[in-house]
UniProtKB/TrEMBL annotation:
The keyword Oxidoreductase does not apply. It is a peripheral membrane protein. It catalyses: GTP + H2O = GDP + phosphate + H(+). NCBIfam families: ftsY. One of its GO terms (molecular function) is GTP binding. The gene is ftsY. GTP binds at residues 187-194, 269-273, 331-334. It is found in: Cell membrane; Cytoplasm. This is Signal recognition particle receptor FtsY. Residues 352-365 form the SRP54-type proteins GTP-binding domain.
Amino acid sequence: MEYVVASLILLAVLVVGAIGLVVPRLRRRELPPPTGGSTTTLERPPAEVAEPTLPTLPDELPPLVQAPTIERPEPTAGRLVRLRARLSRSQSLLGKGLLSVLSRDHLDEDAWEEIEDSLISADVGVEATQALVARLRERVRVLGTRTVAEVREQLAEELVAALEPGMDRSLRTAPHDGRPAVVLVVGVNGAGKTTTCGKVARVLIADGRTVLLGAADTFRAAAAEQLATWGERVGAETVRGPEGGDPASVAFDAVRRGIDTGVDTVLIDTAGRLQNKVGLMDELGKVKRVVEKHGPVDETLLILDATTGQNGLEQARVFTDVVDVTGVVLTKLDGTAKGGIVIAVQNKLGIPVKLVGLGEGPDDLAPFEPAAFVEALLGTDA
Ligand SMILES: Nc1nc2c(ncn2[C@@H]2O[C@H](COP(=O)(O)OP(=O)(O)OP(=O)(O)O)[C@@H](O)[C@H]2O)c(=O)[nH]1
């Protein structure tokens, strides 16, 4: 009997033990998933454990730092001819307008007045227009010119003559006396100085020269940035100073660096604030004086915005009074119907137009050639 009782007790203990083990597990399974609360733990899905795979490497690894791509600017020869379509606005006014008058059977007083008006509207300037029309009238009278083609040819010749084709338009950018040529770029804000500096650097590099840029426009921080970007594109170094720093000291450092590195040409971009002439004179005069401690400035290019027309001419005078301008760059000729401004600029300032800007593209700057320019304006072979 004792055995029976002991066996029953043992059995009961085992049963209770088994229930104690199984019930909490079942309860745990039945618990609802957590809903909301301060933290949410994301559980991984019961993943099949994937075999770790090694990434496959490409045959050639890319370099960690990409070297900037150096561009190869277009050659400068024949650029004006290639870009002639950019003068279409001027061409409609001067070329098409004039030629329709010239094609009349008889060139009476009214016709000559219309010709004068077209030239004045194209910003050729009153004096230059009167002189040009007087010469053309005389030729037509003396030679008894009859056909449109002949008058057109004579007009083209007169326009070319008014552009003084004998002027020296070469840029003095060749190194000499064991140092680089120094080019100062001046002009009012927004005329296109920085852009032109960049484009001139490309022109020189296209012609096989080495160039260093000096960002002496410390007035506008973005100008230095913009110039450095132009330089990087063609592999030219840019010397910059702190924003608002002394432009003359940046210009001085740029020339010294150019001498040390043995480049052919140093191009210096300057600021062109025109709020008062005295301030401008002081600043530009100082830049020039300080740069000349290294040797004379070889070329001073005045950048003029063609779209400002006769106003631009007034501004130009301020600069020609301050620095010895050796050449004019007329920018934005693509954006105006007043291409005749080239004649007015030369006529009034007596300084050759050496380059013309015909667009915002990096190679939209062309050496100025009077005959090709007139050809583009008239839309004919001059
Ligand atoms: N259409 C056209 N735009 C031009 C030409 N040259 C320059 N520009 C534009 O004119 C604007 C002013 O040019 P910038 O070179 O910044 O002028 P900036 O004289 O240096 O001006 P600041 O730095 O303020 O003194 C820019 O948007 C140029 O892209 C050109 O020949 N044709």
